[in-house]
Amino acid sequence: MFPNSNVTLYQTTGKGFLSRGLLILMHLNNNTDQFSGRRKVISGIILGVGLMLLVRLFVLQIADPSYKAFARSNYLRHLTDYPSRGLIYDRNGDLMVFNEAHYDLMVIPGQVREIDTLEFCELLGIDRAAFESRLAQARNYSRFRASVFERQISKTTFAAFQEKLFRFPGFYVQPRTLRRYTYPVATHTFGYVGEAGPNIINNDPYYRPGDYIGISGIERAYEKELRGNKGLRIRMVDVLNRDIGPFQEGRFDTIAVTGKDLYTTLDAQLQIYGEKLMHNKRGSIVAIEPSTGEILSLISSPSFDPGLLVGRQRTRNYRALQNDSLRPLFNRALMAQYPPGSVFKLISTLISLQEGVIGPGTTYGCQGIYHAGGVSIRCRSHPGPVNVVSGIQYSCNTFSSIIFQNTINQSKYSSIQESFGKWREYVQSFGLGRHFGSDLSYELPGLIATPDYYDRIYGPRGWRSQTIISLGIGQGELGVTPLQLANMTAAIANRGYYFTPHIVKAVGSPENKNDQFGLANNIPIDQRHFDVIIRAMDLVVKEGTASFSAIPGIEMAGKTGTVQNPHGENHSVYVAFAPVDDPKIAISVIVENAGYGSVWAAPIASLMIEKYLNREVERSWFEQRVLEADFLTAQ
Hints:
Blueprint: H1 2-63, H2 65-75, E1 76-81, E2 88-89, E3 95-107, H3 117-124, H4 128-141, E4 147-153, H5 155-163, E5 171-181, H6 187-190, E6 193-195, H7 198-203, E7 212-214, H8 217-221, H9 223-227, E8 231-237, E9 243-246, E10 262-264, H10 268-277, E11 283-289, E12 294-301, H11 314-323, H12 332-335, H13 345-354, E13 369-372, E14 375-378, H14 388-393, H15 397-408, H16 416-429, E15 447-448, H17 451-458, E16 478-479, H18 482-493, E17 497-499, E18 504-507, E19 520-522, H19 527-542, E20 557-563, E21 571-578, E22 585-591, H20 601-614, H21 620-628
Helix pairs in contact: 1-2, 10-20, 13-15
């Protein structure tokens, strides 16, 4: 049994070892499969994390530029080189507008770190609330692009700030220029420069926040010529915000191009003198060179020092000027629209001559009053009867009313609408009632009523010449600007044509003439009729209503006017040109609430003409009378 038992045990044991071996092999195989699966899982996790990191790096370095911008903004500074605006000269080369350096404090919000805010604010003279507010505005604009933190800091403040700039990372100083004026005159003509608004920035890619642009006057009309082209410098800075040199040796830098200089048509000394004469007066003076249309002086009074609209106080000063009851911001020379009064008789008479309604020898009696239907027009005492020349010489209302009425009532026209429409065309040919299209900003067209205007008020059959007879003496539905009156006078001086009045003579250099206004505008009235009117204007000064203002040694042709003003004293008006045979200057003067044209407007024009032609005034007593006149204090 034993041996059998042993054998059985041996066999059993052998089977056990075999079974165990198989089991162990099977177990090892199972573990190998498990390790392989885990490796796959772990490998997949590692691969996934790596892929995520690669994607993130792609986003950071390529897809999202903000991090790249942030990194670059830490060591690169993009500086705009603002060009100097072009200078402005008068017609004789006298410098009138130039530039002066100032500084803007710039900020890149993404670079701003913990700083001594108290010291920073003390250097700039601001409080902490202003600091926080401005920094928040800069962040809203961009964290990585520079914007203006403080404008137009003084040289003293700049010097103190520059020494401590390294303590304030994210801030740097940007050089700029401000306008300065040789003489405190011609404010409305030059205009002013201000910060470009959102509409301009959105519509013109040249401008960015903080850039300046011409807002009015010459600065506005010639902005593209004056502004030049901005340059760019890329500088490297260290961790202390200190400049350490150009980026890649300035390979990407561009040079600023200075704006072009402008040579205006103004005569600086005449402008200064005219503004002096208009001190304490409301009104305007416009003087034109008839042979070119060049404006010699453009005066609106009251005015103000153009320097008030420059620098950090511009906004406050502008608000004060805007609230001033004298309205110094209002450019009366281009925008005030007055009834022309008796000076309009020059045009009305020329139209009647051209239409053949009257001739040079036509005469009418004057009884001191003229009745037309239910309308009565009074006239001042003068010798009679009157013809074309004496009618102008003594400014006879009766003569002007009769010839206007006869012109409108001509039988060759089928209706009053047609005859009045023709009359209106003549008036407009002198430049009245329309824009000149010149280089003057904010010029208004004035007013000349249309036939439709009267049709709407009275009905197509409800009005006639008596209804509108006040037009014949320059009242009623007429509104003209001082510029238009001066241009009308220049057209008469030229015997039937004018050049568009303009303010810039040359751009870039005196030789580069501004020829866009060199085409003459012809008036459809024969020259022979102008000769008659000029003879009458000559007698106005020699023996008529302007004899008090005659200039010794200079022949001046003129016409006085007194404009009715329902709101107070009448306006004093005068137009003239000289010399009569070779006109060098045509002028209009309006002094509001000053009464008769012969008393104040004519003397001012007389002094202006003497100053321009002789370069000095000898009638000191005459001059002193005008200088001492004050029409503002009593009002």
